[in-house]
Write a structure and sequence with these properties.
Blueprint lengths: L4 E8 L2 E2 L5 E2 L7 E2 L1 H6 L8 H5 L1 E9 L3 E4 L1 H21 L4 E5 L12 H13 L4 E6 L7 H6 L2 E4 L8 H18 L8 E7 L15 H12 L4 E7 L12 E7 L2 H17 L10 E2 L1 H10 L5 E5 L14 H7 L12 E7 L1 H10 L4 E6 L11 E14 L3 E8 L2 E6 L8 H5 L10 E4 L6 H6 L2 E5 L37 E3 L8
Parallel strand pairs: 1-5, 1-7, 2-6, 3-6, 7-8, 8-9, 13-21, 14-20, 14-21, 15-19, 15-20
Antiparallel strand pairs: 4-5, 10-12, 10-22, 11-12, 16-17, 17-18, 18-19
Helix pairs in contact: 3-4, 7-8
């Protein structure tokens, strides 16, 4: 029997509609053809999945989280996906599509961008092709997106240590259904339940309860007879569209089974809503610095959460850096050592690279994109190190200002790995305090931190959700609304596939 032909396409960008930043087409770093196969080790020649199907890379693009995607950029990438799919359809029969997305992409002038992308794809590939989507648990699943997919799953861990495992599961689910499909019209059922909860990832980490127990239910559900997959989406809190809320989807073959299990998961989520709290102690930046200085734990990490570039922040809000530079404790070289990661400043980098390591320079950086929350910061210090060639930052430099080491970049970059610091001649494990623009600490940072605190700082991904000003999400919504006139209806809506738009 010939192996099924499976195409791979999708665009991924977690975008904050509260950030003034805009995401362009080139930010997606699109991959095509064999580049896509090369990206995923589970599709390399000789692996079970590679042998199970003929995988055809169309185009995928994964942008660093940021601001809303400009419409022209979306149209450019979408048009290329459609053109390449049209070419493939003209030469062979496609059996399946792996829809490789995140689920929280906002596009100018458009609601529900992933559903719109899939709608256009369906026009080309037709109704008989099975589609399996893999998503971030911080994505959003509208009824329309569920309506156009056959299989859909998401991460079960936050931080997302199972990202690749989830993508592989989505592919195996697709292969499994294709192999067992004898009737061209036979496809799984999906039980979809929207839940009126919208929480930030920092309150729903699977490291702690109740998310830990909630997500532990998924493998149990998946192991049940007649269930193919079970998934829970927390949703994305920093965008303002009607689709932004939590969702449960259970996929399988028997309506009563998938409906009952979806309701069980959704009910657990809803009944646990008051138990969700920040993954770490939290407070203002000033109180966070006070706590770090008073603690004997070293290194002590402070999460500068409001401008987290991996959640959609612009990355160049200077509010926290200004506060730190104003602290007397860091003004002298002999003071407590602190690393700050990081601040974009292309003009500052030009001055630094011209002066070279060891020079004393005065530079101005930040607030080129997000000048809503603060203005540019000016500082004088000694150039500690310079590095070229990073895929995100392009150029990085460290300035020593008193006892602080401030990382400056040509373009914004997240700092998640110890090597990110070591390559800049910084030693985070020997520092007193490390301040990182992030939400919950990624695994390597979490392992390094002797203690840490979540600083509730301003920015496009502010943890104080009500002050952002959502006005398009469905209401009532926890925790925006604490009182509900009635218990939400958590009955499952059974969504069989249909190639026709919802009415």
């Amino acid at each position: 029997m010939s192996r099924p032909v499976i195409a791979i396409a999708g665009l991924a960008c977690e975008t904050s509609s509260f950030s003034p930043a805009r995401t362009l087409a080139e930010a997606f770093h699109p991959r095509r053809g064999k580049e896509i196969i090369d990206k995923y080790s589970f599709l390399h020649a000789g692996t079970p999945l590679a042998d199970a199907a003929q995988w055809k890379g169309i185009l995928i693009g994964h942008a660093l989280p940021g601001g809303v995607v400009v419409q022209a950029g979306f149209e450019q990438l979408c048009s290329e996906i459609i053109a390449r799919l049209t070419e493939l359809v003209a030469s062979t029969t496609i059996d399946g599509l792996w829809f490789d997305i995140h689920g929280a992409m906002c596009v100018e002038g458009m609601d529900d961008a992933e559903a719109e992308l899939l709608r256009r794809i369906r026009v080309v590939i037709g109704p008989d092709v099975l589609v399996s989507a893999s998503m971030d648990l911080h994505g959003n699943v509208s009824r329309e997106l569920a309506h156009q997919t056959d299989l859909i799953t998401c991460y079960r861990m936050a931080p997302h240590e199972d990202a690749w495992k989830t993508k592989e599961r989505a592919c195996w689910n697709l292969v499994s259904v294709l192999e067992s499909r004898t009737d061209s019209l036979k496809r799984p059922l999906k039980a979809w339940i929207p839940i009126p909860i919208l929480l930030p990832g920092e309150q729903t980490s699977t490291r702690i309860e109740p998310a830990k127990s909630l997500y532990a239910l998924l493998p149990e559900a998946e192991a049940m007879e007649d269930i193919l997959d079970a998934a829970i989406w927390v949703g994305y809190a920093w965008a303002d569209e009607p689709r932004n809320h939590a969702v449960v989807i259970v996929t399988g073959w028997v309506e009563d089974v998938v409906a009952a299990e979806a309701k069980r998961l959704a009910s657990f989520f809803w009944e646990s809503r008051k138990e969700f709290h920040f993954v770490a102690p939290s407070g203002s930046l000033q109180s966070s610095i006070d706590k770090a200085l008073a603690s004997s734990a070293r290194p002590f990490f402070i999460s500068d959460s409001g401008d987290n570039p991996t959640a959609g922040g612009a990355g160049d809000v200077t509010w926290s850096l200004n506060q730190l530079l104003g602290r007397a404790e860091f003004r002298q070289e002999g003071g407590p050592t602190a690393i700050y990661a990081s601040m974009p400043g292309p003009e500052a980098l030009a001055i630094i690279t011209m002066a070279g390591v060891g020079a004393t320079v005065t530079i101005t950086a930040g607030a080129l994109v997000d000048n809503i929350h603060s203005g540019p910061v000016t500082m004088t210090g000694k150039v500690h190190s310079i590095k070229y060639g990073d895929i995100h930052a392009e150029i990085e430099a460290v300035m020593q200002v008193g006892s602080m080491y401030v990382i400056l970049t040509r373009r914004r970059k997240p700092y998640h790995l110890e090597k990110d610091f070591l390559e800049l001649d910084l030693k985070p494990r020997l520092s007193d305090i490390v301040i990182v623009k992030i939400g919950y600490l990624e695994p390597e940072l979490f392992e390094m931190a002797a203690d840490w605190i979540l600083a509730l700082t301003p920015g496009g991904v502010d943890q104080d959700l009500p002050r952002l000003g959502h006005h398009r999400i469905c209401r009532p919504m926890w925790p925006f609304d604490k009182e509900f006139s009635h218990t939400p209806d958590l009955s499952a809506q059974i969504i069989p596939f249909s190639n026709q738009p919802l009415t």
